[in-house]
Specification:
- Helix 1 runs antiparallel to helix 2.
- The protein has 96 residues and is α+β, with helices and mostly antiparallel strands.
- The protein has one domain: 2-Layer Sandwich (YaeB-like fold), CATH 3.30.2310.
- The relative contact order is 0.21.
- Strands 1-4-3-2 form a four-stranded mixed sheet.
């Protein structure tokens, strides 16, 4: 499976990791480890999660209140965002 990570995801991750590091040094690194673990699980079984919005699916990061949002297009997994669970999902309307 090919994995594409949209450019906006870098901003999502940096913003969240910085926020956690401000609360407790090193917690941002823990967030990134959890993101990578969640991404690996998603790559391993991308169709496990149901479609919940248009063609978007999500998987929750175990330790943090964030969702990894993604699409599956043929043999491609496209990571569309990593957003706090309370974040308005209309952000995907802007991202396309």
């Amino acid at each position: 499976m090919n994995v594409e990570i949209r450019p906006e995801v870098a901003t999502d991750l940096a913003t969240a990791a910085d926020w956690y590091d401000q609360r407790e040094p090193g917690l941002g690194d823990d967030f990134m480890v959890e993101y990578r673990r969640t991404l690996a699980a998603t790559i391993g079984n991308p169709l496990e999660r149901p479609v919940v919005r248009s063609d978007l699916r999500w998987r929750k990061l175990s330790r943090f209140p964030y969702l990894l949002w993604y699409r599956v297009n043929n043999a491609n997994l496209v990571v569309a965002g990593v957003l706090h669970v309370r974040r308005d999902r209309s952000v995907f309307d802007e991202r396309g």
